[in-house]
Amino acid sequence: MCDALAAQLVAGTWSRPAANTSLKLPDGQTRKWEIIKADQGGGFSGRALAGGYVYVAVPSEREQVMILEATGHSSVFVNGEPHAGDPYGHGYLHLPVLLKRGTNDFLFHVGRGSLKAKLTPPKAEAYLDFSDTTLPDLIVGEVARTLAGTSSSTPARGPERSLHAGLSVSIARWQRPSSTDRPAQRTQGRRLPGNPNRR
């Protein structure tokens, strides 16, 4: 089924599916589109989604950029454009997608039997997303020149934008009290503004 739909998308012959319409596979077999309803948690699940597809029509009153937060899918085509998926359901994939005015086609390829998806407005024109970070191990008292990684998002429409951010961190180190029992002093620390996960 994956090859058949992918071939249609590449050839530009794919069209919005309707219930009970059939899709012919390369080996001669056929599959029928079926109506599926969300469960109480707002997701979709079932045996048919183990390697199957879910199509969702999303209306929009105007052209706008939204953030797609989805889990359980291997990939998704938004109005024919391919985007990465989150097959293991980690929940850290937040993708800016452009919605056109009218009906928008979301075609999810689901590999593990379940799918959850929602659209949210962007937090800002450009921001850092700390949902998925790659951080070094730091040792108190040792000076280290190292790197850290996180995702950036620039969902604003218009000229191409780039996001640059610098971060300088000083590890807090407590000194032992002196003989006069003065309170311990701590070296100064700095953090990147706007990171809710750092205190």
Could you please describe the fold and organization of this structure?
The chain is mainly beta. It folds into 2 domains: 2-120, Jelly Rolls (Sandwich), CATH 2.60.120; 123-199, no CATH class. The protein has one helix at 2-11; strands at residues 22-24, 30-32, 44-45, 53-60, 64-71, 73-78, 81-84, 94-99, 102-110, 114-120, 127-134, 149-153. It has a 4-stranded antiparallel beta sheet with strand order 3-10-5-8, with no helix packed on it. It is globular. The chain starts with a helix and ends in a 46-residue tail after the last strand. Mean pLDDT is 79; it is low at 171-175 and 179-199.
Helix content: under 10%
Give the ordered list of helices and strands.
HEEEEEEEEEEEE
| Domain count | 2
Structural class, judged by helices and strands? mainly beta
Proportion in β-strands = 25-35%
Task: Provide a count of the helices.
Answer: 1
Q: Got a strand count?
A: 12
Mean pLDDT metric: 79
- Compute the CA-based radius of gyration: 24 Å
The main β sheet shows up as: 4 strands, antiparallel
CATH C-level name of the largest domain: Mainly Beta
- Stretches with pLDDT under 50, minimum 5 residues: 171-175, 179-199
Please give the alpha-carbon distance between the first and last residues: 48 Å
Biggest sheet, strands in spatial order? 3-10-5-8
Q: Can you tell me the overall shape?
A: globular
CATH second-level architecture of the largest domain: Sandwich
According to CATH, what is the topology of the largest domain?
Answer: Jelly Rolls
